[in-house]
Hints:
Layout: H1 5-30, H2 46-83, H3 90-96
Amino acid sequence: MRLSRTASWFLLAFGVWSWFIWVSFVRNLWKNGSGLAFDAAGDPTSYFWVHLTLAVTSFLLGTAVGVLGLRSVLALRRESRTDRPGGADGADRADRAGRPDSDTSA
Length: 106
C-alpha cells in the first residue's frame, strides 16, 4: 500500500502529538492532588487505573501510527531521490529505457 505525502505527514504528526499529549496527561495524573487519582492513604484509585490504561493504550496506538507515518515519509523521500535525473540509479534507468548513456559516444 502506498500513502500520499499528505497522509504520511499527517500520521507522523499524529504520532508526535500522541507522545506530547499522553505523556503530559500521565504526568498530570500522577501529580493529581484532588483525591480522584489517589485516596487519602495515597493508594491509586479506580479513576487512576482506568485513565492510566487509557493513556498507555492511546500512547502505544499513537506510536504505531507515527511509525507508519515516518516509514512512509522516508519511503517517499527515497523514491523522489531516485526518480530525479542523475539520481542514485539514473544511468541504470537510462540503459533500461533504451537510451544511450551521456558518457558513450557513437
